[in-house]
Design brief:
The complex is a heterodimer.
Chain A: H1 15-48, H2 56-84, H3 87-98, H4 100-128, H5 133-160
Helix pairs in contact in A: 1-2, 4-5
Chain B: H1 3-8, H2 15-22, H3 26-33, H4 37-44, H5 52-61, H6 66-69
Helix pairs in contact in B: 3-4
Classes of the chains: A mainly alpha, B mainly alpha.
């Protein structure tokens, strides 16, 4: 079964099928926005209490992250609602989300962005690690996660394809 | 990139020719095979290689075989 998520491509063959996909996606958008609200609320509550010992900066990051999730999901929700109310836009969006060439372009763009991210991350951690050794630890952790995920995905797709 | 690799990234097709003969617009063909018009333009320009499924859909749309629609260069594919 093809993995489906909020930003994933679709195999919907007509507008009716795509309409159902968008309605399902809207439920997920609501769930993610709810998570964002919980994170932001927790950060706001922690800020009011003085005994948490968390720095203001971190609380600001959590609050911003939660608010960002709410806003992002709200924008996607409104966009989906506009699409659901306009047949022509719905068709255009369906074709863009099911087009194999656009899917390949997205995949290649992601690969390129990942390479750049890794290069910048490694260079940043190696240089920054001179002053902040925690950056080296973070780099090693990130590389471990990457290699592990890669091997799991490799084994999965070898079996699947 | 070697010449062989460059060759493998493109594939000539007869989509434009068949489209003109049957008086089908790029938009109509794109709608029929569930892709964007830009993908049809890329296929006609030889900049994109269709998947087997898309090749099959296009060939079926024009009621021809895949070999008739897509020009498979054995030398370029190292065969």
């Amino acid at each position: 079964m093809k993995f489906r998520g909020i930003f994933c491509a679709t195999t919907a063959a007509n507008n009716e099928e795509y309409r159902k996909v968008l309605k399902r996606r809207n439920i997920w958008l609501g769930a993610v926005a709810g998570m964002g609200a919980l994170v932001a609320l927790a950060a706001l509550l922690a800020e009011r209490r003085s005994d948490t010992g968390l720095p203001d900066y971190i609380l600001g990051v959590y609050c911003g992250f939660g608010t960002g999730l709410i806003l992002g999901m709200a924008i996607l929700f409104v966009r989906n609602m506009i699409l659901l109310g306009n047949e022509e836009k719905l068709k255009q969006s369906r074709l863009e989300n099911s087009d194999e060439r656009l899917e390949q372009i997205g995949s290649r763009a992601s690969q390129s962005a990942l390479k750049v991210l890794m290069l910048v991350g490694i260079a940043g951690a190696m240089i920054g690690g001179i002053r902040e050794p925690v950056l080296i630890k973070a780099l090693i952790f990130a590389l471990d996660v990457f290699v592990f995920s890669y091997l799991v995905a490799l084994a999965y797709y070898k079996k699947k394809m | 990139m070697t010449d062989t690799q460059k060759g493998a990234d493109v594939m000539q097709t007869r989509i434009a020719q068949y489209r003109r003969e049957r008086k089908v617009t790029q938009e109509e063909l794109a709608d029929a095979v569930n892709v964007t018009r830009q993908t049809i333009i890329s296929l006609e320009g030889g900049r994109y290689k269709a998947s087997l499924v898309l090749a099959h859909k296009i060939a079926q749309f024009f009621q021809v075989t895949i070999e008739e629609m897509f020009i498979f260069d054995k030398e370029e594919e190292n065969l």
